[in-house]
Structure formats: C-alpha cells, structure tokens
Amino acid sequence: TAVEEIAQAHCGDNFVIASLDEFRKKSDLYKVLTAASHHSDDYVYVEPFANRLRDSVADHAKKNHINILYDGTGIPYQPRYSTIVNQFKAHGFHTQITAVDAFIVKPDGRENELIRSSVITSVKERFETTGRALPWVVTVDKHIRAPRSFLNALEHETLDKISLFANDGEKNKHYLVAESFSFSDQEVRVLQKHQLAGTLMTHLKSLIENRDDSFIKNLAQGDESKLAAQIKRNPVFAENNVAYQIYPSKNGNRVLVIYNARRMVDFVEKRQLNPNASGEEGLLHKPESLAFHVDPYTKDPWMTRLQSFRCQDKRIIITIT
Q1: Residue 126 parent element (H or E)
Q2: Residues 33 and 160 placed together within one structural domain of the fold
Q3: What is the C-alpha separation between 112 and 275, in angstroms, rounded?
Q4: Are residues 112 and 235 in the same domain?
Q5: Short-list 124, 149, 128, CA closest to 139
Q6: Are residues 18 and 26 in contact, defined by beta-carbon separation less than 8 angstroms?
Q7: Which of 133, 165, 289, 295 can pair with 174 through a Cys bridge, CB separation 3.0 to 4.6 Å?
Q8: Per-residue model confidence as pLDDT tens digits over 47-70
Q9: Is the domain of 239 the same as that of 173?
Q10: pTM (2 d.p.)
C-alpha cells in the first residue's frame, strides 16, 4: 500500500505492521460472517477482537523499541489515537502520521483530473470480485470525520510530523498534498516574505529538496530523479495553488505547508458530505449548501459557522473555523 511504501522508505524492512483489517481476518467469526455476507455484523462483532490483537502487537513493539506501522483510520484522533501517540512518544519513539485521502465520489467536471476510480466505485468493484464490501454507512462516516481528525492531529504537539497524500491518479502514483514542519519565528517570516513576493512555490520546492525532515526527500533517499518524479506527481504545483497554516506554540511554530491548496480544500470539504444519503446521489450537498457546516457537538441542530475559500490576487486564502 501507499503507507507501507512510505514506511519502507523510513525503516527499510525493519518494521512491524499492526493492521486492524489484517487482524480481523484471524478471527473464525470473521470467516463465518463474511461467508454469509454479513459485512455490517463483521464490523460490529469482530472489530473488538482485532483491536485487542492490534493493541497487543503495538504494546510489544513499544516495550521492545521496534519500529511500527500502526495501520488505522486515525478516527477519532482524540482521545483514541492521541493517547497512542503520547504513549509511543513517552517511550522515545519518533511519532508520525501519514494520511492518504481518496475521493468518495468524483465532483462533476473533474473526471479527467481524477484518474483513479472513486472510493464508491472501488468498493463496488471489490464486492463484485471478492464478495467483500465495507458497509455504506461506515464508509461515509469515515470520510466525514477524517478532516476533523487530521486537524486535531495537526495541533497535537506530541506528534512529530503529519502529512497528507492524495490517491487520485494512477495506481501507486499518490502525491503529497501537505506536510507539517517545525519552524522558528525567523523561518515563518521568510515564508511570509516569499508569499508577498509571489515566490512561495519556489520556496516550498526548496524546502522539499533541502530540509532533512522533508517527506519527499526521505522517500527519494538521495536519488535526485526520484525526488523530481515525486514532485512532478502533484498535478497543480503552482504559485496560485500553494498555501500554509501557522500554529504557534510554546516550542516554536508548527506550519502546515500546502502544496496543492485545491486538493486540501477538497479534503476539508468532506466534513460537509450528507451522512443521510442512501447512495451516491445526494451524498454531495449542492454548491449553495457548501457555505456552512453543522457543529457535531452543538446542542442546537442548525447552522453554526461560515466557511469560505476564495482566490485573491492569485493567492489562496483558506478560512477554516
């Protein structure tokens, strides 16, 4: 998988995978339920078993300082995954989250841009060939909650790094949408000066090529051609499509550097998918409805805060509330 490729770039073959999906298959009950096409029951009754097995493997890796790829949705990040990150950090691990996003359905007019089939199409194809399918309500729920979990993780200071990849193109051609860096105040000022000068994209490319904590630089492992190929995968790496978000803290600044602002907005807008849709039609809210989101924790079931995305003077301005 994309995440395994990334883990291999960091650790070689020296890591263990703790995967909920793979551990679920170790259950005899799983085999019975899936043979009977009871996929929803599989998720209800087998997941506790798989979770315990994954936690056992993770605990062994933690105590013995073994590199681990903890394969999961990251949802909800708090308190479930933030607690896991805190525990590994306390044992001296470098903690990193790599998120891979795919469109659940393709927006109208962008079919040529998004070569890879949508999640819904992939689920249907898998069911036709293997008889295995993720329940519809589970699929939609995961996509709706992913943006909030990502942004929560971004602000978690114990987490060393977070990155977002898009899985839109050809198979194994995922590209980096955004990644976090730890910046000093001076580095933030340099970033801002490049934005004002209209040279932000060039500066971000330099960060990719030269920083030791650059995700793509680590993937390339010193191979200049691989590094250039990874950068080229981004379909719109341009001055009017790059951005950044600054999160000041007592230890400096965490900066989310965004290499494809349009794709980042696509990801954030998943929070506005219609959870009550019974199929593809009706899943995406109409454009005029995209100006708001519903606060899941509010006591009153109505619109709460505005959210906007606009282009001004060829710079992307993202407002996320």
Answers
A1: helix 119-130
A2: no
A3: 27
A4: yes
A5: 124
A6: no
A7: 165
A8: 889 999 999 999 999 999 999 999
A9: yes
A10: 0.82
Tokens 């995406």 belong to residue: 284
> How many CB atoms are closer than 10 A to CB 252?
15
Which two three-digit tokens encode residue 267?
A: 């990801």
* Eight-class DSSP state of 266: H
Residue 247 tokens read as 């999160």
Domain count, the chain: 2
Which range of residues forms the domain containing residue 3? Answer: 1-72
H or E segment and range at residue 41: helix 39-45
Q: How far is CA 29 from CA 22, 72, 143, in A?
A: 14, 21, 27
Backbone angles phi, psi at 148, to 5 degrees: -65, -40
Residues whose CB falls within 8 Å of the CB of residue 69, separated by 6 or more in sequence, listed in order? 3, 4, 7, 15, 16, 17, 18, 19
pLDDT band at 115 (very low <50, low <70, confident <90, very high): low
Strand residue runs (E) in 191-307 = 243-249, 252-258, 292-293, 305-306
The reply to whether 43 and 184 lie within a common domain is: no
The verdict on 67 and 118 lying in the same domain is no
Whether 24 and 152 map to the same domain: the answer is no
Q: How far apart are CA 138 and CA 219, in angstroms?
A: 32
Beta strand 315-319 with 16-19 is unpaired
